[in-house]
Amino acid sequence: MGKPMRIRAKAVNGETTVRALMAHIMEGGQRKDSSGNRIPAHHITDVTASHNGKTVLTAQWGSAVSQNPFLAFTFKGGAAGEKLAISWKDNKGDSRTDEVTIS
Question: For labelling alongside 37, which of 10, 51, 53, 68 has CA 20 to 30 A away?
């Protein structure tokens, strides 16, 4: 399991803006180490965000996303005090889910 995500969610006028920073190495599999051996790919492949059990965002990522990716999006709905959860899975089977209270 990866390190905790840093998530902020704020509701204003019926829309919720979410910003998340995910700690992940996001290795693309193209680089070589000092011995000339290829470093195996290790990157997030699927991201899901849900609010009150309803999916508000799904994304499929590949190896071209940078290390420690930042994700920002807005969805209609959400109110202060409600919960928002973001989950990711990577190509090696690791996963993480973190939850935040909307402010």
Answer: 68
Cα–Cα distances in Å, from 102 out to 18, 32, 59, 65, 77? 9, 42, 21, 27, 11
Report the sign of the C-alpha dihedral through residues 69, 74, 77, 82, in that order: positive
Q: Say whether pTM exceeds 0.85.
A: yes
Q: 3-state class of 13 per DSSP? A: coil
Please name the residue that has the structure tokens 């070589």. Answer: 32
The per-residue pLDDT for range 89-100, each reduced to its tens digit, is 999 999 999 999
Q: What is the 3-state secondary structure (H, E, C) of 57-86?
A: EEEECCCCCCCCCEEEEEEECCCCCCEEEE
Structure tokens at 1: 């399991």
